[in-house]
């Protein structure tokens, strides 16, 4: 069944602003939030907690079993730092948020992450690991990179993505109408 609303992945290194953007975007567009971290915890899609890395050891198969039907319905904002496990056919836009080093460091420090976790995440951001994963996993036309350093960045990102959602809905409706003729 064709989706009438698009699915958007909001991804990027922890601390870049995914969940903040996701909440604002949900409010602006009416799309629903799919907070993958919540699903992992609440539905126990993990094999325990890695104390050293201070993160869940995710069971990706179980996670996909939990969320795939939801994503198939469309209209989801998927917030997670991993972007390459979702089937390409279900995803319409991949937004990779990026944050300058000094700003990201302060945000991670404010979260009381330990030094190792801060270092891992800073390295990942500097090496643009998630951007590369997104570009390898999806058609380059649907992957966009947006700066998330300031509140103004966030506001303009949310406005831009909301506009994209409106256009997507209109284009899909026009296509559906053409098919009906
Ligand atoms: N563009 C931004 N401008 C200012 N502060 C931001 C921005 N994006 C995120 N933040 C702040 O940084 C912290 C981490 O944001 P969060 O959305 O939780 O990141 P993520 O979901 O990517 O881990 C929060 O305190 C949030 O308010």
Automatic annotation (TrEMBL):
ATP binds at residues 15, 17-20, 111. One of its GO terms (cellular component) is nucleus. It is found in: Cytoplasm; Nucleus. Its EC number is 2.7.4.3. It comes from the Eukaryota. GO terms for molecular function: AMP kinase activity; ATP binding; ATP hydrolysis activity. Residues 110-120 are annotated as: LID. One of its GO terms (biological process) is ribosomal small subunit biogenesis. The keyword S-adenosyl-L-methionine does not apply. Keywords: ATP-binding, Cytoplasm, Hydrolase, Kinase, Nucleotide-binding, Nucleus, Ribosome biogenesis, rRNA processing, Transferase. Residues 35-58 are annotated as: NMPbind. PANTHER family: ADENYLATE KINASE ISOENZYME 6 (PTHR12595:SF0), POS9-ACTIVATING FACTOR FAP7-RELATED (PTHR12595). Broad-specificity nucleoside monophosphate (NMP) kinase that catalyzes the reversible transfer of the terminal phosphate group between nucleoside triphosphates and monophosphates. Has also ATPase activity. Involved in the late cytoplasmic maturation steps of the 40S ribosomal particles, specifically 18S rRNA maturation. While NMP activity is not required for ribosome maturation, ATPase activity is. Associates transiently with small ribosomal subunit protein uS11. ATP hydrolysis breaks the interaction with uS11. Belongs to the adenylate kinase family. AK6 subfamily. Interacts with small ribosomal subunit protein uS11. Not a structural component of 43S pre-ribosomes, but transiently interacts with them by binding to uS11. This is Adenylate kinase isoenzyme 6 homolog. It comes from Ascobolus immersus RN42.
